[in-house]
Write a structure and sequence with these properties.
- This protein has 254 residues and is of the alpha/beta class.
- The protein is built from six helices and eleven strands.
- The strands form two sheets. It has a nine-stranded mixed sheet, with helices on both faces.
- It is globular.
- The structure holds manganese (II) ion.
Length: 254
């Protein structure tokens, strides 16, 4: 079994090391990850610069390939150029900070997993709650457990799963939907050493008790597993528009 690992915190991030250590026990692991942190770059790709791919050592041994681009760049390059065969799984993480609710739209961690799923590879985005001593090893073991379960259940390939692990002692696992709770955003307005104004965004998801959501699950101490999709078509609205007659106009001039 071949597992491709990537992230958006960069190839030197501790979460990626924890993931590599845990998943090396169940398969061959290849790391292709951004050379520098790419958090919140979403699905950006590099068009106007070359991509460098260099071997990176950690602890005196080859750790993986560092790429001078985004998480999505890493996955594309790995699949098209760097790997000899198609991986059985892609895991992106372990991200420092959970990717919940609408924040998945900004996440480079999730985007890398989307990229893998687009190529038909079952892809897992995994994130852990931010705290003084993030539980990277716990989250990596959750991913290892999840891969085992997916294999046991003979799930089809190409799945896209978003996994979030809370800091509290894990009570269990919940299959959830992505919360649509609003994010309360504001800007800290500050002054730099030269007297010029600058801004720093802050964002907080409003408290929510939505039953069955990712936010609710982690708040209650459960690992949240949310199946995602990259089909952005609103199928309900598609059906309504198709039956509304809005598109039945063949002779209109603009
Ligand atoms: Mn990140």
């Amino acid at each position: 079994m071949l597992i491709l690992l990537t992230n958006d915190d960069g190839i030197y991030a501790p979460g990626l090391l924890a993931l590599k250590n845990a998943l090396s026990e169940i398969g061959e692991v290849k790391v292709v990850a951004p050379l520098v942190e790419q958090s919140a770059v979403a699905h950006t790709i590099t068009l106007s610069h070359p991509l460098r791919a260099i071997e990176v050592e950690r602890g005196g041994r080859l750790f993986g390939i560092g790429v001078s681009g985004s998480p999505a760049d890493c996955v594309k390059l790995a699949l098209k150029e760097l790997l000899d065969e198609k991986p059985d799984f892609l895991v992106s993480g372990i991200n420092l900070g959970m990717n919940l609710g609408v924040n998945v739209l900004y996440s480079g961690t999730v985007a890398a997993a989307v990229e893998g799923a687009m190529s038909g590879i079952t892809s897992i985005a995994a994130s852990v709650e931010m705290e003084d001593r993030p539980k990277f090893d716990t989250a990596a073991n959750v991913v290892k457990w999840l891969i085992h379960r997916l294999l046991e259940l003979k799930m089809p390939s190409g799945l896209l799963l978003n996994v979030n692990v809370p800091s509290a002692p894990v009570k269990g696992v919940r299959i959830t939907r992505q919360s649509l709770a609003a994010v309360q955003e504001s800007f800290d307005r500050r002054t730099d050493p030269r007297g010029r104004r600058y801004y720093w965004i802050t964002a907080e998801i409003t408290e929510t008790e939505e039953e069955g959501s990712d936010i609710r699950a982690v708040k209650e101490g459960f690992v949240s597993i949310t199946p995602l999709q990259y089909d952005l078509t609103n199928h309900n609205l598609l059906d309504r528009l198709l039956s509304s007659g809005l598109g039945d106009v063949d002779d209109v001039a603009f």
